[in-house]
Here is the input.
Amino acid sequence: MLELLEGTARHNGLVTAFALVGLVMLISMKLSRHLTMGRVHGSAIAIVIGLGLAYWGGVQTGGTKGLADVSLFAGVGMMGGAMLRDFAIVATAFEVQVVEAKKAGMVGVVALLLGTLLPFIVGAGVAYAFGYRDAVSITTIGAGAVTYIVGPVTGAAIGATSDVMALSIAAGLIKAILVMVATPAAAKFLGLRTPRSAMVFGGLAGTVSGVSAGLAATDRRLVPYGALVATFHTGLGCLLGPSLLFFATRAIVG
Amino acid sequence: MIIYGTALLAICHLLGIFLGDLLGTLIGAKTNVGGVGIAMILLICARLWMHKKGWMPEQTEMGVAFWGAMYIPVVVAMAAQQNVLTALRGGPVALLAAVGSVVVCACVIALINRGEKVEGTALPPLEVPNPATVR
Here is the structure.
């Protein structure tokens, strides 16, 4: 009976992954609402659970692909693989309102560029300080400090190893959680009062989940402005990471 | 039909990845260069153009919107297949990179937004939220 059920799950890998991730999301949303009073966004908790499951999978199988190495959950590898991941990320561009975006003007563009460059330099500098010397690893970790999407997208494009990719996701994730939790407390220091200031914040703080959750906990009305610029952030990072930033890094470290 | 939206997304995706590969080959990078970003720009342009032409009914939009909404779950699945075990050995790298970039960015945000006070009096924003009603 149990073996039969296991066989069903195994033969329907991708469908099993949908059910599993749905369950993880449900638990995360509940935890977000009841345990953290909505301060930590449910999606961030879900990603932490995902990383936890990957750790468990790694311990169980000794493999390199986390939960996807556990045969029962091999479908997770399909769902979170490069094809569907890029497909879903491209789809988010659909929500960008160009007219609204134009209102941000030059400051928004400057904030976006700084929001990509500064974290990248910090991340790349930390990677170098910890003994990474190849351009691919330094770029991937630097890109991870931009957002946890830009990191793996960049890493996949330039051929980084899985452990460096995981490191870059971890960096982006810690950053997102920090932005979420610290924004309400730092709102006054950051000068978060106007839509324009929210756009500056969205451009520089980057991560969409971090920005939207952080602003929601500060002032709900600021959310769309911050999220709007932040949605450009990932696209810009994905564009610059594997190209300009990679070449610049390669030119410097050789 | 809903599939039109998904097909549009698929075409933009493929074209973007193809152009990214092409760009990578042309500059001798041997990898995809900004394919996802190019695909996103293509999708934004396609959407603007089709809206103008009136070729974007709600059903078609839903074919794209579904996948946009699937982005967080897909990222969760992506997180679940990472080599976390190995990453944890380099723990302080991730922590320092994250904390460092957040601190640097927070200071720059504060710097830019402090400058707004002067500008703000000259050009007030359309909607100024009242800080007193926060939360």
